[in-house]
Design brief:
binds magnesium ion, OB fold (Dihydrolipoamide Acetyltransferase, E2P), NA-bd_OB-fold, 2 domains, binds adenosine-5'-triphosphate, nucleic acid binding, 13 helices, 16 strands, BirA Bifunctional Protein, domain 2
Amino acid sequence: NKRIKIKHLIENTYTGETVTVMGWVRTRRSNKHVTFIALNDGSSIQNYQIVADPEKINEELLKKANTGACLKITGTVVASQGSGQQSEIQADRIEILGEADPDKYPIQPKKHSLEFLRENAHLRVRTNTFGAIFRIRHHLAFAVHQYFHQKGFCYLHSPIITASDAEGAGETFQVTTLDLKNPPRDENNAINFKEDFFERATNLTVSGQLEGELAALALSEIYTFGPTFRAENSNTTRHLAEFWMIEPEMAFYDAEDNQNLAEDFLQYIIGFALENCQEDLAFLDQRAAEEEKNKKAEQRSELGLLERLEFVTKNTFVRISYTEALDILRNSKPNKKKKFTYPIDEWGTDLQSEHERYLVEKHFKKPVIITDYPKAIKSFYMKQNEDGKTVAAMDILFPGIGEIIGGSQREERLDKLTERMQELGISQEEMWWYLDTRRFGTAPHAGFGLGFERLVQFVTGMSNIRDVIPFPRTPGNAEF
Ligand code: ATP
Ligand code: MG
Ligand code: MG
Ligand code: MG
């Protein structure tokens, strides 16, 4: 008998047929006459009911079918007597593929805290919550590729090991083959990276953008989607040391084309999840609602999870400049104390997530794109505006999250770019390869970066980013 996935058993009619299923026991209930096993194989959030008659199935064997054990079951599909599901399997044969000692198996059928599950990240995917999250994560990744493929973008694999730090996008992880306990030294007693495998100092990439720009100035429209690494020592709920980034880069796009693409992209991706992950989202919506109840009134979100997703798909994003945003914030009363924790009076101050969330959740009640930031708080590669003070940057702000996308039109003029690099003390010698694109056949171009886990966080409603990646890498945490 061929194995059938539980999702197919639920969605199709197999009544009367003999089938085989395999999966893990979620719960087992017995009385004198019969044993019920709720089986899950990860294809659906729903468990499938197996009915075992002790006259047919050895009782000693049934005792081993504890929560967490892995089973192979062959039996007949029959219409279900109980409520909750259409059909169930009357087992003819049960095989224990893997036992789970009930005294030692940590994932018992009860509500575990997220902290406990994080400590058991190797097994937490066997819970409903994490099954739902990782299925949604898969769908989002698939939708990203589908979106760009349909638009004719080329998926570009940027390198993981690089010699550039994308100019300070974050703290880097060094990569070396040298024995750092006893490294070779040069004449100045500095570590001699000439003896390293790469004959230079290298690090894990913090962003694929600069390489993406090189490719866009040949393939016109590309996107990267790969792991990035930042050794930021921030124990926040929105930062990981290893996270995945989606970075489209497009020749012949100006700042407005870039904003249009980002808005359309986000609405597509989130719409895709709403359409294709209904069961998992309904489960997480419920979960998020319960979580909200435990929050202090002022921290409670006005929107439920599904409402928040529709907030993105159904609203046209507001577009305002940094200067306009600052005016709004200066004249706002965010709460009873009428003050933000970080004062926001001076032009040039960067927005904090409390300001970003205020604009989205309280002032506009729509997703917001902020454009034309002061050049001092943005990167050297952003196109300088005519006013001499701002650059053609954009940040996209979402409810509950704040910044989800950062992007810009890039500076394509060699003279303006090198002038800015000089001001900031960035070595033109080291960046010769980047500057070559401006020397030879330069073109207007733009792009943006979306942290994939921030997106998954938004769509699943999880408040900690560690709960939306299978194996989170954070300070002190890399065991498994
Ligand atoms: P933040 O202000 O939140 O630290 P950033 O401005 O440093 O973000 P960018 O360099 O603009 O981040 O990176 C682009 C996107 O990558 C961000 O908009 C965000 O979605 C995501 N991102 C940045 N740092 C992290 C991180 N440590 N973990 C997860 N996602 C991140
Ligand atoms: Mg940062
Ligand atoms: Mg930022
Ligand atoms: Mg940013």
